[in-house]
Design goal:
6-stranded mixed β-sheet, 327 residues, alpha/beta, two-stranded parallel sheet, DNA-binding, 8 helices
Amino acid sequence: MENGTMNDNKSMNKSCLLHILSEGEEEMRRLSLNLNEPQKAAAMQVQKKFSRAIDIVNSMEVTGMQQMPVSGSPGQSGSGSPRSEGSERSLKKRKGTVKRTIKVQCTVPNSGPLDAASAPDDGYSWRKYGQKKILNATHPRSYYRCTFQKTQNCQALKQVQRSDEDPTIFDVTYQGEHVCAQHAAQTSLTQSLGHQHIIPTQNESDKQFMLDFTNPNPSFLIETHESGHDEQGTIISPSFSISSNPNVFSPSSTSFGGAFSSGFGSSGASDSNYFSAFPNEFGGDFAGVSNFHGSDFELNDVMPCSGTNDFSIEQPTYPFNSPHAFK
DNA sequence: GCAATTTGACCTCG
DNA sequence: CGAGGTCAAATTGC
């Protein structure tokens, strides 16, 4: 928690991030060579966004990298102890529970009444089992578990919290793995739509994936937490969006097990902007469910330049301009 | 009547 | 001891 150390880490993480982004850009460039026209164009778009992300990271102060742009710190303006602490805590609260978690952060467009029920609908059936007022947050946090927890021993959990500052933003945290029947159905649906969902495993580590769909540009952040004991890490990828072609970038059989999709509540069937792209580094480890699901996913695979598990990179969500609204 | 939600109490952790 | 997470009885809705 010392500042000097943190800055060192951030500096290192910045270069790690640049490394990842560069590889992502390069990978996209290579990929685009093998695609046909419409897909190629979209791939080029993604490549450009990698470039832009690299530029932004380059121009970023190390100390500034800690800030989260959109959401994440409801009512914590100035308190200086935003989400990272909260999420870490929330996930460690109970011992012996889920080891890998998925965290999804969603921004929904301003459409109709927004309440807990407006929280992102990921296509799974959830049953609310609690609601709690959170310190420094105007809106309470809702706790959900899979409807089939009892019947099918499905351990998936979900937390939904609305941001104070921007009521259109929901912080959704997924935890645990769907093993219920709907998961299979969801997976095929996911594939056909180009969604993804995460399949966390119940291992010794604790990992989170945070996605951020920002209006009007769906974008995502990926955040992993490894909390075996005292270790923790955070990687937040640059966010980017794929404007109108959901098929461009769907890694086959993407499956992000905890479950999410971009179908937001009643906003219902949107046909675009289902997002399934990952930067290169993540592509190998995240997008392929089989890898991710297994034990071979390690933070160090993603961050090869990181020698320790105690790191933290955070980076703003870049509002890539997309003409396509997310609903 | 059953299932889902609400809500206050209780538990766990830092 | 306080904050967050979960439980379970009561309530509500279909």
